């Protein structure tokens, strides 16, 4: 790990690769210290590791964790702050620290000894983490900046403009440095330099919050950047969400009313410790110098960034720069929110894209096609003319005449401007803005540029890609590609709805179910943990949970809705089921219960929830020019939507109560759930026909999949789903955001996986394949995004994915966590093998290691390679009439020592197995 990476993530940054020396006789076992979601400011960090072995059926039998204040102490097992002792357990994730109280600023070293059922015993290498400033009194720094506009180009109404703030401070370093640590927060965004070098690769730091509730700070080891004697620290402050993109403009409309938190400001504390124990502390105060006359003359997330090279200040962040014309920084008020060490990583450039073509639109305009709708910015190397601005304007699609289609961006100007200070070559990319785009309009050049002059930078929250999926069907594969790009493009320190227009908000409803499928693709736990805190922080006093978090709009999003705020509970449930992490449930249980009580007490009548705000949002309308259907027959009763969701949430809360030690709450949840189920079926179910409400697919699938349908009527209700889908909608999707959360798995689990496969592979409207045929490389906001009113037709949304990505992994690949042994401690491998799909190759990097499912249909039957990581078990369901029809590596199943049992029933052979690599062949 690089020394300048976030120390708040030292035990949370991917994996500590490598292992200790192997004892004699052990040739196949390694231990990797694993992802640990540790915040510097918590007293009970959690430990994790994973085991890799060439042997089959490997299970951990015990562990021992040691923690010490120095590496030497750890190696000698002296002065330990915690020794867990030998614990007989197979737990290897989220093991909580239970030692002495941890101290501010301190470094801690740890390692783990594991034993397995194979008789192996192995110590891991040591890993390190560092604590933050745990007490308010540890801070000596003050918030600094200037709470006013200084530049003539600034604009404080409507589409705001504000130049970046540049701050600097020179300081001495005298002595042999033992450590140097920087604690920093800059609002809205900051970039920090030491002696002219940027201290990290992060962008858009720190992650966005409701700044009146909490403010994140980051921690860096900066020792490698220091010089003997004189040093300079420099910081650039961008506006981000802190200085609002829209300031009190009545013409901007409801969605243009954004909160203004204040002018950009800085808090920084650099602590340098010398080998003799002495210390130098450099803090932000009014001794720093500040200017707004730098080259970044405007920066705005919606509108772009403007850079004038005439105002460049060579060496401004290095020693000896003449800052006599700069003003003294001023002490300013704190943002108001609690200052906390940031747990989740910042955004980074995670990928790059080369353009595929350049088209000359007219004498002065060129259109660059990136070939992919992406989220980030454009880095350029171009030849400019002095004082002639070069403009870059961004869009997702083109008009028929080849010009940019901008209507769907609403009020966002999405324009970057670079003004050269001289004739000749320059290289530039912005710092404090981003765009959702495939196409870029370039004006201001006097020649046609080349493809090599442009590079698309793909920016999103730093996280590992953990999933892969490929199949024999090109439509299935392209949808996965589109989903992958759309999902990561909307990770913006919160999961957002869209990245291109003047919105880009954390709508809860978009992720209530989609977060599950995303977890197979990205290691997103820390992002979603952070989002849960955002949601709780803006819960109202009466318990109401908003539809959007964090809170950046001025109008109140506490609507009393159920289906959107349901994500609060659903995300916590996802973190538990997919990662095995119960901490979010325990941390947020009281808040979640408060919301459930609020809905019960204020939004319910006769055991039916009467309030719904959005309906089955964006279901395919009867006319492709519409955004929302006007046909009552296509609309699902909002009371049904809200009540069915609330019923499911009651059952989840019963589980949460048991997990969090609130068992006394369970009887009340169960009693209310029983009353709701009775009232729901009395109001909405026609028992004679098996139809719910007006028989929409959404009404029926919600009732069936959320366990509201009586057992005796489940077959009838499902028949109506199938008949409606195949008949009235010609085997196409007919649901919106709500129904699509259950459609694909619901069809498959009830025996119509072939219909689900047809829906997934359709290329005609409405379908994901239709989007592809219309040129989409991400997922649209609307099924009819090419024809609907541009007021709402984002080309990069993920809400209509619903449970599709979950279906890919759990149903097509057959990779699923057992609900009783969560976090993939036990893996359920039970693919559906649809006609028309010849093979699937999929993998998922679980916390225990890689899980693979590669199956292929052939002349000799079904071949299926399955990989199960060490310290887990699996239940593997193979389509075969009997066990003697199935072999593993050419041998009978029970000859493999990792196979525990084999059972055959209903056309399937179920193999219970330990870890290992299995090559099954199910003969015809």
UniProtKB/TrEMBL annotation:
Swiss-Prot/TrEMBL keywords: Hydrolase
EC number: 3.2.1.40
Alpha-L-rhamnosidase concanavalin-like domain location: 360-457
InterPro entries, per database record: 6-hairpin_glycosidase_sf, 6hp_glycosidase-like_sf, Alpha_rhamnosid, Bac_rhamnosid6H, Bac_rhamnosid_C, Bac_rhamnosid_N, Ig-like_fold, Rhamnosid_concanavalin
Catalytic class of the enzyme: hydrolase
GO molecular function list: hydrolase activity
Record's keyword annotation contains Hydrolase: yes
Domain Alpha-L-rhamnosidase six-hairpin glycosidase, first and last residues per copy: 465-812
UniProt xrefs under SUPFAM superfamilies: Six-hairpin glycosidases
Ranges for domain Alpha-L-rhamnosidase C-terminal: 814-890
The reaction(s) this protein catalyses: Hydrolysis of terminal non-reducing alpha-L-rhamnose residues in alpha-L-rhamnosides
Residue ranges occupied by any Bacterial alpha-L-rhamnosidase N-terminal domain in the UniProt entry: 176-349
Protein's UniProt name: alpha-L-rhamnosidase
């Amino acid at each position: 790990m690089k020394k300048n990476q976030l120390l708040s993530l030292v035990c949370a940054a991917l994996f500590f690769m490598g292992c200790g020396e192997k004892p004699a006789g052990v040739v196949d076992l390694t231990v990797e210290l694993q992802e640990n979601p540790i915040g510097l400011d918590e007293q009970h960090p959690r430990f994790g590791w994973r085991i890799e072995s060439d042997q089959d059926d490997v299970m951990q039998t015990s562990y021992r964790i040691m923690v010490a204040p120095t590496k030497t102490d750890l190696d000698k097992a002296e002065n330990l702050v915690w020794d867990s002792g030998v614990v007989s357990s197979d737990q290897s994730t989220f093991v909580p620290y239970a030692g002495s109280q941890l101290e501010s600023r301190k470094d801690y070293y740890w390692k783990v000894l594991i034993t397995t059922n194979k008789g192996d015993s192995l110590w891991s290498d040591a890993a390190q983490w560092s604590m933050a400033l745990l007490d308010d009194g540890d801070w000596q720094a003050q918030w600094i900046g200037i709470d006013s506009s200084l530049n003539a180009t600034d604009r404080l109404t409507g589409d705001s403009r504000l130049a970046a703030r540049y701050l600097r401070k020179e300081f001495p370093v005298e002595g042999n440095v033992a450590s140097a640590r920087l604690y920093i927060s800059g609002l809205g965004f900051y970039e920090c330099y030491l002696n002219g070098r940027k201290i990290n690769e992060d962008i858009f730091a720190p992650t966005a919050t409701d700044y009146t509730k909490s403010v994140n700070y980051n921690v860096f080891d900066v020792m490698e950047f220091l010089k003997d004697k004189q040093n300079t620290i420099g910081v650039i402050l961008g506006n981000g969400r802190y200085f609002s993109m829209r300031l009190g403009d009545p013409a901007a409309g409801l969605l243009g009313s954004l909160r203004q938190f204040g002018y950009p400001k800085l808090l920084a504390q650099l602590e340098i410790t010398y080998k003799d124990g002495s210390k130098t502390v450099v803090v932000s105060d009014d001794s720093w110098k500040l200017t707004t006359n730098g080259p970044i003359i405007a920066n705005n997330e919606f509108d772009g960034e403007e850079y004038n090279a005439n105002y460049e200040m060579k060496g401004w962040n290095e020693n000896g720069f003449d800052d006599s014309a700069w003003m003294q920084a001023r002490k300013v008020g704190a943002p108001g929110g609690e200052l906390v060490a940031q747990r989740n990583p910042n955004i980074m450039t995670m990928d790059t894209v080369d353009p595929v073509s350049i088209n000359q639109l007219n004498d002065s305009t060129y259109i660059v096609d990136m070939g992919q709708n992406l989220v980030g910015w454009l880095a350029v190397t171009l030849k400019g003319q002095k004082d002639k601005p070069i403009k870059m304007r961004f869009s997702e699609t083109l008009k028929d005449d080849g010009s940019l289609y901008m209507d769907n961006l609403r009020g966002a100007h999405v324009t970057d401007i670079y003004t050269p200070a001289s004739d000749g070559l320059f290289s530039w990319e912005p710092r404090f803005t981003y765009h959702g785009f495939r196409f870029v309009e370039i004006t201001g050049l006097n020649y046609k540029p080349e493809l090599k002059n442009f590079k698309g930078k793909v920016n999103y929250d730093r996280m590992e890609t953990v999933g892969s999926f490929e199949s024999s069907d090109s439509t299935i594969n392209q949808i996965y590609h589109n989903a992958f790009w759309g999902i990561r493009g909307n990770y913006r320190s919160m999961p957002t709805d869209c990245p291109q227009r003047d919105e880009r908000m954390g709508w809860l409803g978009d992720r209530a179910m989609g977060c599950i499928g995303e977890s197979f693709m990205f290691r997103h736990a820390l992002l979603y943990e952070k989002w849960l805190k955002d949601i709780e922080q803006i819960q109202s006093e009466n318990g109401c949970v908003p539809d959007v978090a964090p809170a950046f709009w001025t109008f109140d999003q506490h609507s009393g809705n159920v289906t959107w705020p349901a994500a609060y509970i659903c995300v916590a449930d996802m973190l538990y089921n997919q990662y095995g992490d119960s901490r979010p449930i325990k941390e947020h249980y009281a808040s979640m219960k408060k919301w459930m009580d609020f809905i019960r007490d204020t939004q319910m009548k006769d055991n039916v929830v009467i309030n719904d705000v959005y309906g089955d949002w964006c279901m395919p309308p009867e006319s492709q020019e519409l955004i929302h259907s006007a046909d009552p027959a296509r609309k699902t009763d909002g009371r049904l939507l809200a009540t069915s969701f609330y019923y499911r949430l009651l059952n989840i809360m019963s589980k949460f109560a048991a997990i969090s030690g609130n068992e006394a709450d369970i009887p009340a949840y169960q009693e209310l759930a029983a009353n709701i189920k009775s009232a729901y079926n009395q109001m909405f179910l026609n028992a004679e026909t098996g139809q719910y409400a007006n028989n929409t697919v959404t009404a029926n699938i919600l009732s069936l999949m959320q366990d509201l349908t009586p057992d005796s009527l489940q077959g009838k209700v499902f028949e109506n789903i199938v008949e409606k889908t195949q008949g009235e909608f010609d085997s196409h999707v007919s649901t919106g955001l709500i129904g699509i959360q259950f459609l694909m798995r619901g069809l498959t689990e009830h025996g119509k996986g072939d219909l689900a496969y047809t829906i997934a592979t359709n290329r005609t409207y409405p379908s994901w394949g239709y989007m592809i045929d219309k040129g989409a490389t991400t997922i649209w906001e609307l099924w009819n995004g090419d024809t609907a009113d541009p007021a709402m037709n984002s080309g990069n949304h993920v809400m209509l994915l619903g449970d599709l990505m979950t279906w890919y992994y759990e149903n097509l690949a057959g990779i699923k966590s057992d609900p009783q042994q969560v976090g993939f401690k036990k893996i359920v491998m039970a693919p559906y093998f649809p006609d028309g799909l010849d093979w699937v190759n999929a993998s998922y990097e679980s916390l225990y290691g890689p899980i693979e499912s590669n199956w292929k249909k052939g002349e000799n039957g079904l071949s299926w390679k399955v990989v199960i990581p060490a310290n887990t078990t699996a239940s593997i369901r193979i389509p075969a009439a009997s066990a003697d029809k199935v072999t593993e590596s050419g041998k009978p199943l029970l000859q493999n020592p990792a196979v525990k049992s084999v059972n055959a029933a209903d056309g399937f052979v179920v193999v219970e197995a330990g870890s290992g690599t299995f090559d099954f062949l199910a003969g015809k």
